[in-house]
Design goal:
heterodimer, A: 197 residues, alpha/beta, two-stranded antiparallel ribbon, 6 helices, 9 strands, 14% helix, globular, B: 736 residues, six-stranded mixed beta sheet, 25 helices
């Protein structure tokens, strides 16, 4: 929005959780953090990763919602469920290939990252990416991210599901997409989904 | 005798730490009552002093907004910075002076508390001499308060003994840089990091302790820079290291001398630079002769090939920077360690150019500014040596006293506690320091505090040390008094006053001035506000090394900070030192200083076979007085733990999450194991932010570097054993 894009690069993450804390300060859901943060495998590595919602062009969460409670704004931001419509079924939680939506029992509602809509819709940067000390979460102009050796992609393959997103993932410069399934690398015949690069 | 007037449990129940999660009025209040204004100021936690905007409404800080225009951090903040705003209206905040009673503390009026404090200090000095009273300061104070405290000790109390908690932080680096360069400041601005072709990061857990520097390191790599990390632990920045050297705790000096050995062996030194700009090279070259990679590998546990590679990368780059922090400096040879970094840079000529040099990463809130203007026992304002007659004359003239009235240098922080233990120092006035948690050998500190005849504390929360106090004067948070700080880069920044202290709490500077008046020295402390203190500080520093004369609050605001030295009002400041190829020494040369290996003061051996090292976590600040009260930060790290490699854990039958008792030659504590492959198998790590039974500093020792007097926090010898069950602190915490 306003010429800025959101980029995620887990290889820069230092696990400080500044994003987790800052998300709580976002006015649309003050006091509740929507960041997905993981110690990947603390026993064996210092690697950590922080994610926001990827804001899919065709959001699986909305497609599987039986109550039509999950809406996307005109500028592509997928919102938390609409409180009056949400029936708390958790379909979205189970279906999202990225594992983003969270059921909040006390509100009986699904909540998720809304890319700090109160901020980004008026030209401000989201809380998490603004404070992130390692810029593993970055909300910058494309020309700024182009200074990094990695490449930005918004194409993901989850088996046969092909997803394009608003938020970009930084990948090695020789890659065009993110694939997480061995099946993506297997030749399955002429009519199967296009294999990932 | 200064025994706590009630149990730890009772005092904790009343004064905390309690956890504050939400701003005053609750999470939703701001949507109804928006902020009235945003105050552009700086974070109080750590030497980076990131720019931040505080949201203020009705004299309360209710939130923050990133300050993206401030060039150092461009809006970035670590979790401490994000949550720092929760201190002001914290329920634990001291709102009145407290006087000790038989059963606890009672609230007192300011006149009563100040009269009592001044009377007790005077009585002790009359009976036992001026030097029977000592003053402890803190590096998180603004530079004005640090300056004022130094003047207060020397002019109002007339004691030699004033030192500060920066003694636990920056003094090894400061001493080394003064020996080599004649000045105690990072020679480079952080923007230079982006232009280095090689970064050597040694003993610096940047991700936890200086998180914003991570972005500089990553951007250096984006530009093609190579990253070498030297640490017994894989700290988070190691994830992108091009070369990782897992140095054995306490052997950094051997490694650094080994790097220089390779440089000289292979003729990679800069002969022209050495000949024209330096003195003392020959002795250093001689000193590293026996440090061949094979011998160094035996000592450090770093492979000879890795030593060769690191030396070549660092020496063959046109531009390389070495960054170091407490991992290198917290040793009884901390000064030598830093000198060895400097010697390496000097031999290659990495200095005084963009993208080349060495730098200490200052740790505390105002770690740089807090050590420049007079709360160090051996320094007068402007980084002037207190023993220098010219310096004494200049400062005495600014203060309006005779030079001989300025006491000579006194004891350092740990030495003051030892003198208290010996009964030589009987009264202590302490501000912004929690020695019970932060000094080594905490049981010794506890004994010493009990021996004090008088302990006066100025603070905003009741720290564990303040439990022993006779009087607690309710002081101010950083955002409650205007002033300046100096960042790790040497950039002087403007701390804005955002709000008044709450309740009957008062500004620290005005408390100190009121005490001076009661000690009969009011004429030397006539300030109506901190700006007047800064005006005097400018004069006192004028012509000194840390020359602030050309700095004003307005200039700082205009330039987004001013790098010292800044000798005149039309001087822009000095982001990079030594660009003319000259040091601050009278001869203008950079001084090589030869280093010599020594063993640790707490040697690992058959009886205590494991290395213990201690350090910080990203969510907590120093002794935790502030951060252990902020809910979101405590959620992140709610107790200390023992990091241990699976190979070592197996030897002791320890599994992940087991309770483990760690014993050193001083004491023992019990805490949970976190079994990880990211630490050397001969070393365990404990974070030190907690008190009492969770205190890593019960285990550490009081061996000091002979020159800097920094304690050897980074290496103790310990034993490990699997504990039968949870320790008392954990049972209490569990509500049992």
């Amino acid at each position: 929005m306003f010429g800025y894009e959101f980029y995620v690069d887990p290889s820069r993450c230092i696990g400080c959780q500044s994003c987790v804390k800052a998300c709580e300060e976002c006015e649309t859901h003050r006091g509740r953090s929507m960041i997905n943060f993981d110690f990947i495998d603390r026993r064996n590595t210092i690697a950590t990763a922080a994610y926001v919602c990827w804001h899919c062009d065709e959001p699986t969460c909305a497609e599987v919602c039986p109550a039509d409670a999950i809406k996307k704004t005109e500028d592509g931001v997928v919102q938390s469920s609409l409180k009056p419509r949400c029936i708390g079924c958790s379909n979205c939680v189970l279906a999202c290939p990225f594992g983003i939506p969270k059921m909040v029992p006390e509100y009986e509602q699904m909540m998720k990252c809304d890319m700090c809509y109160d901020r980004t819709s008026v030209g401000k940067r989201p809380m998490c990416a603004t404070v992130c000390p390692s810029q593993a979460l970055a909300y910058v102009k494309p020309e700024e991210i182009a200074r990094r050796p990695e490449k930005a992609t918004n194409l993901f393959h989850f088996g046969n599901q092909r997803i394009t997103t608003q938020v970009y993932m930084m990948v090695p410069p020789d890659r065009d997409s993110v694939s997480v399934d061995v099946a993506d690398y297997i030749w399955e015949g002429e009519h199967a989904a296009v294999p990932a690069s | 005798m200064a025994k706590p007037p009630a149990s730890v449990e009772a005092l904790t129940e009343r004064y905390g730490p309690h956890l504050n999660y939400a701003p005053a009025g609750g999470w939703q209040d701001e949507s109804v009552h928006p902020a009235e204004r945003l105050v552009k100021t700086h974070c109080c936690f750590c030497g980076q002093q990131c720019g931040i905007q505080l949201k203020v409404r009705e004299n309360r800080v209710i939130g923050f907004e990133p300050w993206e225009e401030f060039p150092f951090n461009r809006g970035m903040l670590c979790p401490k910075g994000v949550k720092r705003y929760l201190q002001g209206s914290h329920p634990d905040r001291l709102l009145d002076p407290l006087l000790r009673t038989d059963r606890g503390f009672r609230r007192a009026a300011w006149d009563e508390a100040l009269d009592f404090t001044a009377r007790r200090l005077r009585e002790i000095q009359e009976r036992h001499g001026k030097d029977a009273v000592a003053v402890y300061g803190g590096a998180s104070l603004t530079t004005e308060k640090s300056y004022l405290l130094g003047k207060f000790a020397r002019v109002a109390l007339g004691t030699r003994h004033i030192d500060y908690n920066g003694r636990l932080c920056m003094v090894s680096a400061g001493t080394a840089y003064k020996l080599a360069f004649g000045v105690d400041r990072s020679p480079i601005p952080w923007s230079d990091i982006l232009n280095a072709q090689v970064l050597l990061i040694i003993g610096a857990n940047i991700a936890d302790c200086a998180p914003i520097t991570t972005d500089y390191v990553w951007r250096c790599r984006d530009n093609g820079g190579k990253l070498i990390v030297v640490d017994p632990r894989m700290t988070p920045i190691t994830r992108n290291a091009d070369l990782y050297l897992p140095v054995r705790a306490g052997t950094d000096l051997a490694l650094l001398m080994g790097l220089l050995h390779v440089v000289l062996r292979d003729g990679l030194e800069n002969r022209a630079f050495i000949a024209e700009r330096t003195v003392g090279f020959e002795a250093v070259a001689e000193s590293v002769k026996s440090y061949d990679p094979r011998a160094v590998a035996e000592k450090t546990g770093v492979a000879p090939e890795a030593i060769e590679k690191a030396a070549r990368w660092f020496a063959q780059a046109d531009r390389a920077i070495a960054l170091h922090a407490r991992g290198l400096e917290h040793h009884s040879k901390g000064v030598e360690n830093c000198l060895a970094v400097i010697n390496l840079c000097l031999a290659i000529g990495h200095l005084g150019r963009e993208g080349a040099g060495c730098a200490m990463i200052t740790g505390q809130g105002n770690g740089q500014g807090g050590r420049e203007h007079g709360q160090k026992c051996d320094q007068l304002p402007g980084q002037r040596p207190i023993s220098d007659p010219v310096a004494r004359r200049h400062v005495a003239q600014v203060w309006g006293i005779r030079p001989e009235e300025i006491p000579q240098g006194g004891l350092t922080a740990v030495e003051i506690m030892e003198a208290i233990h010996r009964g030589e120092i009987k009264g202590l006035l302490s501000i912004c320091f929690n020695p019970l948690v932060s000094l080594p050998d905490a049981n010794f500190t506890h004994e010493a505090l009990e021996k004090l005849e008088f302990l006066g504390i100025i603070d905003f929360f009741l720290s564990e040390t303040a439990h022993y106090a006779d009087v607690v004067l309710a002081g101010s948070l950083q955002e409650e008094e205007e002033g300046v700080g100096c960042t790790a880069e040497g950039r002087v920044v403007h701390i804005q006053k955002a709000v008044d202290p709450p309740g009957n709490a008062r500004g620290d500077a005005m408390i100190i001035c009121d005490l001076a008046r009661r000690l009969g020295k009011g004429q030397y402390f006539p300030y109506g506000n901190t700006r007047e203190i800064f005006e005097e500080l400018r004069e006192a520093s004028r012509g000194g090394i840390a020359d602030y004369y050309g700095i004003t609050y307005e200039k700082i605001d205009r330039q987004m900070g001013v790098f010292w030295p800044c000798p005149t009002l039309d001087h822009p400041g000095t982001p990079r030192l030594f660009e003319g190829g000259k040091s601050f020494h009278p001869d203008g040369k950079f001084h090589f200083v030869a280093t010599e290996w020594r063993e640790s003061g707490d040697p690992v051996g058959d009886d205590y076979p494991v290395y213990l090292t201690t350090g910080r976590l990203v969510g907590h600040y120093l002794s935790g007085t502030q951060t252990r009260r902020i809910g979101a930060l405590v959620d992140q790290h709610d107790e200390p733990w023992l990091e241990i490699h699976p190979r070592l854990a197996m030897r002791y039958g320890i599994s992940d999450a087991d309770w483990v008792t760690v014993t050193t030659r001083r004491s023992e504590i019990t805490l949970r194991a976190q079994v990880v492959r990211t630490i050397r198998p001969d070393t365990v790590f404990i974070p030190y932010h907690w008190p009492h039974g969770q205190s890593a500093n019960r285990l550490t020792h009081r061996t000091l570097d002979p020159r800097s007097k920094i304690p050897e926090f980074k290496i103790s010898a310990c034993q490990l054993r699997r504990a039968d069950g949870a320790p008392e602190w954990a049972r209490r915490k569990g509500g049992a």
